[in-house]
Task: inverse folding
């Protein structure tokens, strides 16, 4: 990786005096935009098909993800961790790094933790020429144009956020007793996902918001990637995530409806930087986050688990089998909330219970099996000739009584030429894709979060949601 050496030759600039932050700034509001790279045919069916396939890939990744950082007495200076398969229907934010600030776009991802950007004028992205992205034209961060860029050394505790607490394994070639560790950089990170990867070096940079600067923010400077046309802002629970590094007490967003088009609309992502005590936001229902009790897979500790217990489908209660409803001693099971998954995923035993109930209540309508096969959805109905469709109501019921009543657009989508077929926009595996029984049993995707205010209350370890017509702020 010759490109990595370009960074190593950057001159290390001395610490600069950092601007003071505005003490009155308690919240930071960013624009959140849907990323819907139009498929070449640009029709709805192909966009949905692409989204079903990427939702399954994403689910497989989240369910099998492994971090090797915590258990690597590795002899190599490269330590692997994994990041998600790029999602088709995600959301992005702009962040400013450096002095003077350089603005870049990032995928908002609550399922991973590192924040990284395409970096240097030599950024190489292979297999990036999909959809409407020009791989030679990907905006990158240029460290040499920033006076606040510093390369992270191997002894820096922030290097340990990504590479674990064992200094010897981070500092190859350095003997702490000889005290020559200070000139050795933190190892190259390689984040692997599905077929591709991204690799680079960790930097300390200023993360700039209007009137508020976060100094010494750990960020990945990626030099080489596959299928990563923009950076990723990790909002997971790891120490390297944006919320953890900024000490956020909460963050919240309102996801605009998926139109699967390129309309430039956006809504807000709000970051809360100061304590709000245990105050709840009015109009929101809350359920507590639960911890995964198992250390067996450190990757799972980065996820936001919630205690989803049952569904109400047209008034009929469908219970999630107990062994799947919360993470067990083996680390498997439970439900996570993920901004980077499009369609909610349910393991087969849960999905079958849900699907059977919808089938019972929509028994007068024929299944559209041809559309199911072609689209990747598992449950589609043909409503030809019926202009008023009696969709059963869907409610998520959490432990403690909180209920999430979904608008019908969040779980049924009209598919097909005349709009005469509607498919349940919830996925499972086991048909074309082999079933994965490890990891979270359910992944609450962004399609089912549309037109809700979603709040991650980190200070009080709870998940809040409230029905809301998300307005474009564009
Ligand atoms: C690091 O510092 C030590 C002691 O100061 C020196 O002997 C060594 O050559 C340096 N290594 C590099 C790679 O600069
Ligand atoms: C669908 O529409 C047809 C014609 O309007 C009607 O006869 C039929 O009862 C409807 N089916 C259902 C299940 O509502
Ligand atoms: C909040 O929960 C109550 C029942 O506890 C329910 O009636 C209400 O619809 C829920 N709000 C949302 C946004 O789902």
Result:
């Amino acid at each position: 990786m010759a490109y990595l050496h370009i960074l190593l030759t950057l001159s290390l600039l001395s610490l600069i005096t950092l601007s003071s932050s505005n003490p009155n700034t308690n919240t930071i509001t960013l624009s959140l935009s849907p990323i819907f790279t139009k498929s070449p045919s640009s029709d709805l069916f192909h966009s949905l098909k692409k989204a079903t396939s990427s939702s399954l890939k994403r689910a497989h990744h989240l369910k099998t993800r492994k971090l090797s950082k915590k258990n690597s007495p590795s002899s190599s200076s490269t330590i692997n961790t994994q990041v998600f398969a790029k999602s088709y229907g995600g959301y992005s934010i702009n962040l400013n790094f450096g002095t003077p600030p350089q603005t870049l776009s990032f995928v908002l991802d609550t399922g991973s933790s590192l924040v990284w950007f395409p970096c240097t004028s030599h950024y190489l992205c292979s297999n990036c020429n999909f959809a409407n992205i020009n791989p030679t034209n990907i905006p990158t961060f240029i460290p040499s144009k920033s006076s606040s860029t510093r390369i992270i050394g191997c002894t820096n505790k922030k290097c340990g956020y990504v590479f674990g607490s064992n200094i010897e394994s981070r500092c190859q070639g350095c003997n702490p007793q000889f005290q020559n560790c200070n000139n050795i950089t933190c190892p190259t990170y390689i984040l692997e996902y599905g077929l591709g990867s991204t690799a680079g070096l960790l930097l300390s940079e200023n993360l700039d918001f209007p009137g508020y600067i976060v100094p010494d923010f750990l960020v990945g400077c990626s030099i080489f990637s596959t299928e990563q046309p923009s950076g990723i802002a990790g909002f997971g629970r790891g120490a390297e995530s944006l919320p953890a590094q900024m000490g956020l007490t909460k963050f919240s967003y309102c996801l605009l409806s998926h139109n699967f088009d390129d309309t430039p609309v956006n809504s807000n992502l709000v970051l809360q930087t100061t304590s709000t005590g245990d105050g709840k936001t009015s109009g929101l229902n809350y359920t507590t986050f639960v911890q995964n009790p198992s250390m067996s897979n450190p990757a799972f500790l980065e996820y936001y688990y919630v205690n989803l217990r049952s569904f109400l489908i047209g008034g009929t209660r469908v219970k999630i089998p107990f062994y799947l409803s919360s993470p067990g001693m083996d680390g498997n099971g439970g439900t996570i909330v993920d901004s980077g998954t499009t369609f909610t995923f349910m393991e087969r035993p849960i999905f079958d219970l849900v699907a059977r109930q919808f089938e019972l209540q929509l028994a007068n309508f024929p299944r559209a099996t041809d559309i199911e096969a072609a689209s990747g959805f598992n449950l589609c109905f043909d409503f030809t000739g019926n202009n008023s469709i009696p969709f059963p109501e869907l409610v998520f019921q959490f432990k403690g009584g909180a209920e999430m009543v979904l608008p019908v657009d969040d779980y049924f989508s009209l598919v097909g030429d005349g709009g005469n077929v509607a498919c349940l926009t919830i996925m499972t595996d086991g048909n074309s894709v082999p079933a994965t029984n490890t990891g979270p049993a359910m992944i609450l995707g962004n399609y089912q979060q549309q037109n809700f205010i979603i709040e991650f209350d980190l200070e009080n370890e709870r998940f809040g949601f409230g029905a809301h017509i998300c307005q474009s702020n564009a």
Residues 1-24, 37-41, 68-88 have pLDDT under 50 and may be disordered. The CA atoms of residues 252 and 455 lie 4 Å apart.
